[in-house]
Each structure stands twice: as structure tokens, then as C-alpha cells.
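I'll show a sample.
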Amino acid sequence: VQLVESGGGLVQPGGSLRLSCEASGFTFSRYAMSWYRQAPGAERELVGLIFNFGGTSNYANSVKGRFTISRDNAKNTVYLQMNSLKPEDTAVYYCYAKIALKDYWGQGTQVTVSS
């Protein structure tokens, strides 16, 4: 199993970024996928998740209405569209999947929101 994030960077407050997580090594369409983030000095927290079928997603209150998770099962990729970014969104963002009771994480991608 491999999860590879991309798309992070530096963005000004109010800006947007789209993160991607390309998955391999498992049947992607069968599993829910999640995004987490970890700010400096803080614990890792759940940003949101998207279920396997139907595309239903749930979000942390802190990002609800600003972030959207989507998936393309044909490309084995999950996305995190982040709009109206705030300095407090600065963190390393991780892709996550639980497969056969094991936890799998990507390497993370840095998102910095600053003017």
C-alpha cells in the first residue's frame, strides 16, 4: 500500500489549494479515505473523510463549508479542495486509509497560509 500526497505550498489568507493523494497497492474504490493534518506543536487531527461508494463525506467543524473532499476511483486518487484558507490551516496534511485493520499514511504535504 502506498499513499502519495502532492499539491501543498505557500498561499495567502483567503486563497485556495487542492491537494491530491494517489493510492496504490489496494482496491481503492472499496475503502473510505481520509485527510488529517498536524500543525506545529499540535496533535494530528481529522480534517474529513469520504466513503467508498456514493461519495458521501464528513468534515471537521473547523473546515466545514471551506474544504471539500472528492475522489476519482478511476485514477485511484482522493482530493482535498481547500478554499478561504486561514493562517490556522497551516499544517502538514496527510492522506490516510485503514485497510484490513492496518493504518496507512502518506508522507504528508506542507500547507502554509501566510501573507
Q: What stands out?
A: The chain has a mean pLDDT of 96. The two ends are 37 Å apart (CA to CA). The first strand starts at residue 2 and ends at 6.
